[in-house]
């Protein structure tokens, strides 16, 4: 097929703001993530519920897909080329000076449990977890930044923030991208923009997404209308774990599908501009539920909280479902002795790899259900504060 004209998708480099190195202070190295076990009792800053509209918008995320010009794409690289790419990017990623210190982890030699733990944490993708060969990830101490090496592309840069904060994500990721580009030459075409392993990422290589908690729209079945409206304007609606995952716990990710022929800022605006409307709908339906069905809603929320505090065995799916009700209950003032950051953290800490790392042993599915119930009882009985 002959491609006759494709508008350059990327914001011209010259117009991009350069990282002001002088603004940086010395990194607080004492906060370095030494081992993954250090993370099991904490949560990422982006889960602390501090950002704008954090009652409904859990987090904002931007990721960039980049490849090095001097190497073939990974699908055409042999083991030694793969190792060479990893070695080079490992060095450059480790050399980055960010406001928070960054730790580089060797994913190739990591246990499967640790890899799954990082997926649950949203720090690596399932693809990086399940693929083979030389690969790694750089993670900032607050978990806002992660840089995956040898995923689908040579480099995937991700920045996360609490709430609706796409501009902040962009500013940070753009600085990181620029400082790496001073060290390496990215695969870039004047006509197409950044060249990526999958054609759907060519151009800007950007994915802009917002993770929303929409229980009222789900309860009232209005979510289908939102879904259809977003598809019409070419935005993707995905589940908690991205492409191909189901919407669990009433979480929905809204992201761009088009990466080519537009600037990064246009793409960010397209996603950002629809979010206030969805937030407005969710608020409207929450209010209607409180007004018209307050007792039923209070009952549902209280039962959910009760089960989470007393169950002796509970599946991951049921936990997500009940935590979703509790989260909405807190936001509507129906529960007053629990904080949103605790609930956000429980969504992550009750997942299989987290439970096993918290318990420090491998657990079968039935054992995990018992461990999960036990963990929930402990956390909800005594500790409402996120460490
Ligand atoms: N706003 C968000 N907040 C927190 N995590 C997110 C957010 N958006 C996406 N993620 C997580 O990032 C991971 C990748 O998501 P997704 O597959 O949609 O993105 P991607 O990087 O574009 O990958 P691909 O190119 O394979 O589609 C998933 O685990 C997903 O849950």
Layout of strands and helices, then pairs:
Layout: E1 57-66, H1 79-95, E2 102-106, H2 112-120, H3 126-130, E3 136-140, E4 145-149, E5 155-162, H4 166-181, E6 188-189, E7 193-194, E8 206-213, H5 215-219, H6 223-232, E9 235-238, E10 251-256, H7 264-310, H8 316-331, H9 340-349, H10 352-359, H11 365-382
Antiparallel strand pairs: 1-5, 1-8, 2-3, 3-4, 4-5, 6-7, 8-10, 9-10
Helix pairs in contact: 2-10, 7-8, 8-9, 10-11
Bound molecules: adenosine-5'-triphosphate.
Adenosine-5'-triphosphate binds next to strand 1, strand 8 and strand 10.
Organism: Symmachiella dynata
Binding site for ATP: 59-63, 156, 207-211, 238-243
EC number: 2.7.14.1
Number of helices: 11
Q: What is the number of beta strands?
A: 10
Bound molecules: adenosine-5'-triphosphate
Q: Structural class, judged by helices and strands?
A: alpha+beta
Instruction: Describe the main β-sheet briefly.
Output: 8 strands, antiparallel
Question: What gyration radius follows from the Cα positions, in whole Å?
Answer: 21 Å
* Unreliable sequence segments: 1-32, 383-387
Please list the strands of the largest sheet in the order they lie side by side: 2-3-4-5-1-8-10-9
Q: What is the rounded distance between the termini?
A: 56 Å
- Which shape, going by the Cα principal axes? globular
Which percent bin holds the helix content?
Answer: 40-55%
The H-and-E topology, N to C, reads as: EHEHHEEEHEEEHHEEHHHHH
- What's the average pLDDT? 87
Proportion of beta-strand residues: 5-15%
Oligomer: single chain
EC number: 2.7.14.1
InterPro entries: Arg_Kinase, ATP-guanido_PTrfase, ATP-guanido_PTrfase_AS, ATP-guanido_PTrfase_cat, Gln_synth/guanido_kin_cat_dom
Catalytic activity: L-arginyl-[protein] + ATP = N(omega)-phospho-L-arginyl-[protein] + ADP + H(+)
Enzyme class: transferase
């Amino acid at each position: 097929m002959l491609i006759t004209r494709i508008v350059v998708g990327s914001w011209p480099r010259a117009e991009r703001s350069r990282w002001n190195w002088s603004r940086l202070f010395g990194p607080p190295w004492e906060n370095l993530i030494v081992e993954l076990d250090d993370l099991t009792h904490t949560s990422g800053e982006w889960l602390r519920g501090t950002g704008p509209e954090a009652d409904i918008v859990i987090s904002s995320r931007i990721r960039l897909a980049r490849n090095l010009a001097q190497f073939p794409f990974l699908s055409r690289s042999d083991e030694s080329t793969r190792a060479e790419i990893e070695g080079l990017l490992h060095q450059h990623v480790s050399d980055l000076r960010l406001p928070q210190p960054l730790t580089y982890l060797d994913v190739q030699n990591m246990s499967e449990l640790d890899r799954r733990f990082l997926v649950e944490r949203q720090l690596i993708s399932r693809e990086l977890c399940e693929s083979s060969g030389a690969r790694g990830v750089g993670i900032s101490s607050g978990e806002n930044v992660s840089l995956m090496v040898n995923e689908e592309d040579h480099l995937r840069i991700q920045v996360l923030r609490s709430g609706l904060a796409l501009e902040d994500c962009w500013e940070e990721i753009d600085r990181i991208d620029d400082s790496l580009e001073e060290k390496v030459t990215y695969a870039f075409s004047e006509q197409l923009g950044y060249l990526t392993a999958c054609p759907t990422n060519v151009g800007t290589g950007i994915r802009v997404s917002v993770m929303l908690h929409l229980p009222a729209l789900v309860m009232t079945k209005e979510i289908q209308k939102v879904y259809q409206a977003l598809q019409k304007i070419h935005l993707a609606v995905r589940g908690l774990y991205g492409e191909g995952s189901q919407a669990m716990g009433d979480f929905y990710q809204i992201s761009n599908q088009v990466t080519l022929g537009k600037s990064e800022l246009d793409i960010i605006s397209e996603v950002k501009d629809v979010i206030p409307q969805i937030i407005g709908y969710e608020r409207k339906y929450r209010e209607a539920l409180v007004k018209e069905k307050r007792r039923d809603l209070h009952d549902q929320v209280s039962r959910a909280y009760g089960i989470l505090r007393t169950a002796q065995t509970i599946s991951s799916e049921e936990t997500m479902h009940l935590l979703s009700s509790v989260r909405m209950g807190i936001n509507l003032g129906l529960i007053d002795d629990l904080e949103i950051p605790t609930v956000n953290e429980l969504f992550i800490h009750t997942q299989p790899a987290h439970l096993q790392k918290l318990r420090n042993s491998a657990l079968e599915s039935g054992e995990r259900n018992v461990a999960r119930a036990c963990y929930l009882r402990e956390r909800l009985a005594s500790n409402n504060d996120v460490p």
